[in-house]
Amino acid sequence: MLSPTSQRPSQRTLTTSAVVVVTIIIILLTLYNLGDTRVVSGGSPVQLSGDEKDTARISTFDAAKSTTLSNTPGTKQDVVKIPTGSPSLSAKAATSAIHLAISSAPAAPNEPRRAFVTFLEADTGTNHGDEAQGTDPDNEDIYFVATRVLGYQLMHQPETRTNTSIPYVVVVSNDVSQSKRARLEKDGAKVVVVDSISDPEWLNTKQQYQGVMTKLRVFQQTEYEKMLYMDADMLVTRRMDAIFEDTGTKIQHPKKDMDTKKETAPLPSSFMLAGQAQQLDRVHKYPPDPSLEWMCSGFMVFKPSQEIFEYYASILERENSFDPMFPDQNLLNYAHRWDGPMPWTNVYYKWTSTYPTIKEYAMGAAALHEKYWLDINRMEDEGQDILGDMWLEVKRDMEAFYRDNNG
């Protein structure tokens, strides 16, 4: 069993000098009588978001109209208080000094350790797309291309990139080529190479899912407190940073009195697995039915730990412990069943949608889960063709961005 990759970032502390500077400046501001702080800017309230309020421009089917949606669940709004009078030059300088002192001070040691993560295995030869990707062998692997597209959206695309420097981690099985690893690192991703997990004989996995159990190694990335896992086949419509503050992502303790004791590994001391129910039909309700118990493992927020990984491994070793049709998804749903000791929780429905239609996009879904490189998934009936064209456009933007910036 592979030991967890554990590279804890250096702990940074707020220096004493920075604290002193901030304290002195606050005293100066008090002396300048800036206490009257009506929230005004040209007569209008001013608000800034610690996670920048996102907007998405939604097109109708005929593209004749557009509506701007603004909804970032879990985002805390910080009101910027502006003095009603015209402060003196010294007061303005003091304010600027405060901003400088705060922005240059090192982060506190309890800074949240969060990351976006996806999984890439060696090319299985399935779902390659309806059009040739070119003569570059790496680009014939559409999942590798999609992994790059997802990274571009999370790291670089202006409308969707992180604004809090959340890293993009790609966990790759050890049979992924060195050239693919190097390309992902050049894109800006953190690549973590892991040993593959072999399927037990009883699992009898279909070809398209062979090797997918190695995905469980994302739970071993214990240098992070919370991670958002996303399958590579995602169209991201707005910034994802605030999902880590969603009420569904609260870390919990297992209900140990409910443990069935079927697994050889003990329950972890704490856990968190949050997501959204798997949609079963192309046309479905949105918002989804909150009573659906089968979670989609293509989009989930979780707490990594070696304990939880070993618990999953013990389930995998037990013959017929879950339905093998969808291997990793059914294992996780068994481990986190609602009547078990570690039930999964729902995140706000606007964070994602599986088998999305234009309706979900118009309602503000942030991550649309579909293989848009396949023509069959770009039908006109429910606007999937519009979404598919959007993903292809992002793919072209990604290629142009890296061509212009780092080859």
What would the keywords be for this entry?
7-stranded mixed beta sheet; 2 domains; Spore Coat Polysaccharide Biosynthesis Protein SpsA, Chain A
Describe, in plain words, how this protein is organized in 3D.
This protein has helices at 16-31, 89-104, 142-155, 178-187, 306-317, 327-335, 358-362, 384-405; strands at 47-49, 56-59, 66-69, 77-79, 114-120, 168-173, 190-194, 226-230, 234-236, 273-277, 295-302, 345-346, 352-354, 367-369. With 407 residues, the protein is an alpha/beta fold. The chain has two domains: 16-104, no CATH class; 114-405, Spore Coat Polysaccharide Biosynthesis Protein SpsA, Chain A (Alpha-Beta Complex). The strands form four sheets. The protein has a seven-stranded mixed β-sheet, with helices on both faces. Strands 9-14-13 form a three-stranded mixed β-sheet. It is globular, with a radius of gyration of 24 Å. It comes from Alectoria fallacina. This is Glycosyltransferase family 8 protein.
| Alpha-beta content class | alpha/beta
Give the strand order of the largest sheet, numbering strands 1, 2, ... along the chain.
7-6-5-8-11-10-12
Number of helices: 8
* Strand residue percentage: 5-15%
- CA-based gyration radius: 24 Å
Q: Give the tally of structural domains.
A: 2
| Helix proportion range | 25-40%
Determine the CATH topology of the largest domain.
Spore Coat Polysaccharide Biosynthesis Protein SpsA, Chain A
Shape: globular
CATH-defined architecture of the largest domain: Alpha-Beta Complex
- The count of β-strands is 14
Tell me, rounded to a whole number, the average pLDDT: 76
What's the CATH H-level superfamily name of the largest domain?
Spore Coat Polysaccharide Biosynthesis Protein SpsA, Chain A
Low-confidence stretches: 1-22, 24-109, 129-133
Q: Kindly, what is the distance between the CA atoms of the first and last residues, rounded to a whole number of angstroms? A: 37 Å
H/E series: HEEEEHEHEHEEEEEHHEEHEH
Q: What's the story with the biggest beta sheet?
A: 7 strands, mixed
The CATH class of the largest domain is: Alpha Beta
Transmembrane segments: 12-32
Protein name: Glycosyltransferase family 8 protein
Keywords: Membrane, Transmembrane, Transmembrane helix
Organism: Alectoria fallacina
